[in-house]
Amino acid sequence: MIIIVRKDTGEAQLSELLGWIEQQGLHSQTARGELATVVSVIGDSSSLDVDRIRCLPFVQSVKRITEPFLLAGRGKHPQDTVVSVSGVLVGGGHFALIAGPCAVESEEQLLAAARCVKASGASILRGGAFKPRTSPYDFQGLGIEGLRILSAVKKETGLPVVSEIVDPSTLPFYEDVDLIQVGARNGQNYELLKELARCGKPILLKRSPASTLREYLMAAEYLLAGGNGNVILCERGVRGFDTETRAVLDVSALPVLHELSHLPVIADPSHAAGQARYVGPLSLAAVAAGADGLMVEVHCDPPSALCDAAQALTPESFDRLSARVRRLREALHD
Ligand code: PEP
Ligand code: MN
Taking Cα atoms as reference points, which of 306, 283, 318, 333 lies closest to residue 116? Predict the structure, then answer.
């Protein structure tokens, strides 16, 4: 950490600051320049509250030189993390295609979708049981019954399943869920993240639509700091000003997150696109930008879907997309 102290600062004030730094178990080096005095803090200053220094009247600015996301960052963990979702590997060169309906509507609906996406190459089945909807009048999901259906379809098809959690009190019902999703709305729900850090299951952490990448990595840090290193990041679109799509898929987030973090990063083109016809191009863009996987919404009869009907791919279009993704990945690895 570097502290820039105003040049007219008296010796007494400066030594008070240096003394405080020592009290924190750290050391410092001071260089008096013509325009300012530079104090370099030596040691692990990650738990130092920068604001307590910044608020001192003689301090001009404070700059951290190490990233605050100590565990999610590459600093201490340069190699890619590979997360195993009940045997399906994600990250470090392993690509996972996750697909299925937005919401679990019935056992027949989920099973039909699961069989199709599996035949097209998906290795993990998605399906929301608890649906966080913008309107309280919209379908809210089947809840615990939805989780029971996911479990039955998993047994039938052999596909591991991912489903969103919205309330930590429902965690006991996720025993048979292989990958627990934290949705965009809860991406900064730190109490939920603290609880999930202790659950012993891999977590798919979506980016909040208004989180910077650094805020997003700090959310992941809650899971890692609490003891859960099995975290998959997911870019799902951020808030933009255009209304043609639902969100703006931040393709830049993929290489940036890969550079800053060792965690696998996948993309969800469906919630960014909001319209089925844009899902294919966005998927290919995400793969080209280095995504470790895709999560795509697929429904056997999109017009009848109870949630996110407009963005659901039919099994046929998902099959074509899956083949194109495969070809693109092969081309990229040549
Ligand atoms: C979902 O994946 O079902 C979902 C609700 O997505 P998001 O949280 O990204 O809006
Ligand atoms: Mn959806």
Answer: 318
**Residue (of 22, 28, 20) closest to 3 by Cα position:** 28
Residue of the CA atom closest to atom 10 of ligand 1 = 184
Measure the N-to-C terminal CA separation of the chain; round to a whole number of Å.
Answer: 43
- What are the distances in angstroms from CA 223 to CA 198, 201, 227, 237? 8, 11, 7, 22
Which residue, judged by its Cα, is nearest atom 5 of ligand 1? 183
* Verdict on whether the full-model pTM lies above 0.90: yes
List, for the chain, all residue ranges whose pLDDT scores fall below the cut of 50: none
- Which ligand 1 atom minimizes the distance to the CA of 268? 9
Cα 103 to ligand 2 centroid, rounded to whole Å: 7
List pocket residues of ligand 1, CB cut-off 6 Å. Answer: 102, 128, 164, 183-185, 206, 236, 268, 271
Give residue 153 CA to ligand 1 midpoint distance, Å. Answer: 21
Centroid of ligand 2 to alpha carbon of 167 (angstroms): 18
Helices (H), 24-143: 50-54, 107-119
Closest CA to 300 of 74, 142, 156, 99: 99
pLDDT digits (tens, 9 = 90+) for 169-186: 999 999 999 999 999 999
Locus of tokens 């799509």: 245
Q: Which residue has the tokens 């008296």?
A: 10
User: How do 83-85 and 88-90 pair as beta strands?
Assistant: antiparallel
Please provide the DSSP assignment of 120-189 as one string.
TT--EEE-BSS---SSTTS----THHHHHHHHHHHHHH---EEEE---GGGGGGGTT-SEEEE-GGGTT-
Chain-centre distance for alpha carbon 44:
27
Compute, in angstroms, the gap from residue 66 CA to the centroid of ligand 2.
37
pLDDT digits (tens, 9 = 90+) for 211-267: 999 999 999 999 999 999 999 999 999 999 999 999 999 999 999 999 999 999 999
Q: Which residue has the tokens 């130092």?
A: 48
| CB 246 within 8 Å of CB 276 | no
